[in-house]
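ARCHIVE ENTRY
Sequence with per-residue tokens
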Amino acid sequence: MRLRSKRRHVARSDFFSLNSLATSVIAFAASPASAVTFTPAPSPNLDLSQLGRVALAGDFSGISLYQFEEQNEHSFRSNGSEKLLARMPNGLFAPIVNTDATIRTMCALDTDNGTVVVLGGNFTSIRGPDHGAPAMQSNAIALFNPTTAAVTPLPGLSGSVNALLCDQDRNTVYLGGSFVGANSTNALAWESGRSWVNLPFAGFNGPVMSITKASSGNIIFGGKFTGLGNASTPSTPDGQVINLSTASISAGFSSTTLGFSDPRNIICKTSGGDGAGNTWLLSDNVAGFWQATFKHGFRPTKLRLYNTHQDGRGTKTWRFTALPINGIMNFTYIDPATNQNASCTSECPLSDDKSVKFQDFHFVNEIGMNEFRIDISAWYGSGGGLNGIELYGDDIFSYAVNDFNEPSCAGLGFPSAATTTGPWVVTPSYSSTGEYLSAQLMAPITNTSASVVFTPDIRESGHYSVNLYTPGCIQDNTCTLRGQIKLTGQMTADPTKSQPIDVDLYQTNNFDKYDQIYFGLVDASSSSFRPRVTMTPLAGQSLTQMTIVAQRIGFTLINSTGGLNGLYEYTPGAAVNASEFMQSAFNRLGANFSTGSVVSALATLGDVTFVAGNFTTSDSLRNIVAVKGGDANAHRLDGGLNGEVKSMFLNGTSLYVGGTFTSTSDNSAQRLNNVAMFDTSKNTWSPLGAGVDGRVVRVVGVTMNITSSTPEVVVSISGDFDQLLPFGGNPAVEVDGFGVWVPSQGNWLKNLDLPVESVDGVLAASILNFTGGHSLYAGSLSSSALRANHAAILGGVSLGRLPVDIEPSTDSASPSNLTKRDGTSFHGGVNGVATGVFDTNNGRNLTILGGHFTAKATDGSTIHNLLILDGSDNDRVTGLSDQISSNSTFLAMAVEGDILFAGGKVTGTANGASVNGLITYNLASKSFNTQPPALSGGNGTVSSIAARSSTKDVYVGGSFSAAGSLDCSGVCFFSTTASQWNQPGRNLRGNVSSLLWATDNLLLAGGNLTINNTAPTFLARYDATAQSWNIYPGADQLPGPVTVLAAGASDGGQIWAAGTSSRNGTAYLMKSDGSTWQQAGQSALQPGTDIRGLQIFSLTASHASSALVNEDEALLLTGSIVLPEFGSASAVLFDGTTFTPFALTTSESPDKPGSISRVFSERSDYFAKSGGGHMPLVFVVLIGLAIALGLILLIVAAGIVLDRIRKRQEGYVPAPTSMIDRGSGMARIPPEELLGGLGRRGVPQV
């Protein structure tokens, strides 16, 4: 709807009422059935009735009024962490569960105890939305109860979950991904009340990407696997040597004999020979122990012991204790005397036969440990001892800390190793499995800042799962410094036999995790080729400081039954028989795929299951097909697609797909460009606009109000693209990997000229309107109630769009010229709208915006940095000529009569004259007039303009020293009547940031100033009557240059000042009553606060009394205000005691919110009250005059009446009035008798 005006047509603005949406969904916030509730924020109660139109200007792409305490300005996180999101009553997304990584999938399951939402992903921790909620360790999966809002981790998995299916019929949740859990790999089930349930086929030999339920009730798994199976041990077990040489070795009751007392004598000794330096002995006839302590964890599978025979001594029985679990281990071994298998626990024997060089003992249970002790309880001869010890395992690791890799003394041909470059240091293990390397990097972050090359010891070629293990960030307190890494590598000597590793990963996990970085063929190490993985920081990260960590990479050999290729149909309750695989249409379809195929997405509609991914078949089916129940063969979808499909979303008969394609395989449908819609009822493909310019990874459904209060389903896409491609008159739109398609409008959300919300970020999954709750979303989003670029209309409890399309400028403002320190602007690198004014003079209805931006004029031309919106001419949009430089920035504007004064960092020509700092423009003739002489000196910037209404002089402040040939430092005024510059006083020097007329004769200037060349000050005042400057009373109490000024009372006796402290660079806010200053918000305004505007507003309801602010007023701060426990807000209300967010913004940047530069209004009656408030002074005077005049008239009339009454009572009669009589009398007097005495002296006589 439109903002209504009583007097004239105003510039059209589309309003989004924050109350209308609340009415339609308020039950969600208040329903006792849902614990997901939101707390209403206090009403701001601003009285805008006396101001006319009010606008907010700044650098933002979306804006919201603060209505619920759960709102914030947090930008969507770009560090990989995602959240479970719900909608607030005003339509904004709010986090209800936080994780440290990605929520990739979720589903809802109705149980006997209510509905539970299952969350799956690659997170390692999960916590509630409260600011101080602790992070709970939760690897890859967790439960959320929408009734109680409780979050419950499900322990037992290690890895990541890619797909979930909640089977309501069987009360079972099926999981798929890249994980190990229970006794399964990559596939598992969970039943309420039974916890984990192993599937009969023990999982898959590759990752599962998607799961669906076919019309038959069978479960369909899709992914990148070639068979059922689990992790396998190498064909030659116990092949990895555990490094004892770098362990800390100790012993108890060692012999004191020289050369035999050191317990390290037996490390790396494999000859079995006795002697000093080769043998470790215990003291005579005493039990003792040998102990090794490591700085990493390991799982041994075999222990090799070499007994000593020195002087008839030797170990007879021993036991092995794993630490820190303090468990005595069980072994199997071959008895050398009988050659029979045997087992032992607490008294394991060791042969005294000299022909037995060593004995191997195999661990019955593979237990993780980082320390062990061998206790010798019996001995041969005079005491026990050993000649050697070796420990082996099956786990294939390459450690970043080289001391943990296989020892050089083992004589291996290709031992595991790591090489590093960069400032790596060894970091304690804390709660991790072992020590690791970390490096502190400073910007710029490049791929050469640091590196680790991992080289494993691969003994046999085969299919491996390659996993990167990353320590958590909580333990070493580096969560805020973690970033992204890049992994590259080649796994086969012949590059055509494997895909190279090229993976980007986040290291922001709170707890330890692993990520699968490769699955496929790995060649054994040889003299000509060794598999290697290189880790480096991801180049180009916007981090000033980064901590990168490196621990280990593991290689797990995968065994399988074979016979599958990316698809498997599982019949619950039935036995698995590999010989019957080909009886399934799904299994047959997969078997027909080319080698290396992947099924990424599955969806079921009725009796049709859609299968999509990256595959081709011998009968030319490509990337997406349909399998219909009962049909033996798959069906082509109108030619298929010519590229990979990564994700699908099914809404009714519309199947939305995203990936890397451009058209159908037969080119029958073109311009599909990575995202398209397939109509299942018509069997046809349709483009979504013209698509996007990069890969789409996720397609997710969202409900949104577009044209009414009834939500409709729209389609979000996330991926690696930068542009929504142009189509049908819609220009290309720059984005950051996110877009929303609105099917009812046939257009992208960003193209709609409607009052719609703004959403940006990443969406990975959604559950729309599930049983017992409203929609839930998984991802990382920033949202605003209204999509509005850089300017919005404020109308009470609603926000409105201006009918103009404003975008950030492609030309960057020079930060060197616009800095906070020089006091000439509010912030460096100004973008968006910095200033604005409404002009209603002489019947005009103009909205004028200035800053650093581009916009489209009504005639299609491009406007730079200053636009004029004419509400009296159908909202026609115009700008200035191209003669003004496009990299100019306007910071201040004022209108005097028909002339617009616009200042800032402005250069170019106007009307043939060079301009610098300031231009004037005739709004009546719509043209440049004769320009004032250019400003010069300083950096030639105007930061503030203040017109003096009584003289029609326009004062400008900034960083300059001359106006034309006139010496005029910091402040100069232009006389509109004389058309010339004048210097106000001659005793001010410096840079001015803000000007304010406190009264008609008193001008205030804030900045970095000097009076009389001797007295520095941050605030000065100019007496227009005396034409001189002096220091404002108490200005020495200001901690730094004043950048913003505002009146604190209508008579100018009180002022507010804000700026930046010269001592510590923090923002300050102070108020003066004309003699003393009071500080406000010392503890509330946090570091990072940037105050760009101040304005007192009247209120419709009073707040608690305060010494700083009247109870019927509030101070509005604009900019980027950082509050404790809240974060930043673009506008904040201060009642003298408390700062409360008022308006929040978002920006196109994923790393920061937006900001509001200032608020401006049609009228400046900020201290006027309505409905019981104080009447403006002018009306008081007029009414007083009217009353006085009325009383005088009444008195005169009463006097006349009383006089008439008196005369009548005293007998007075009217005198004759006949003209005849009067004429005859006059005729009898000669003229000379009347006039003759005029020239005589003396007193006339009668």
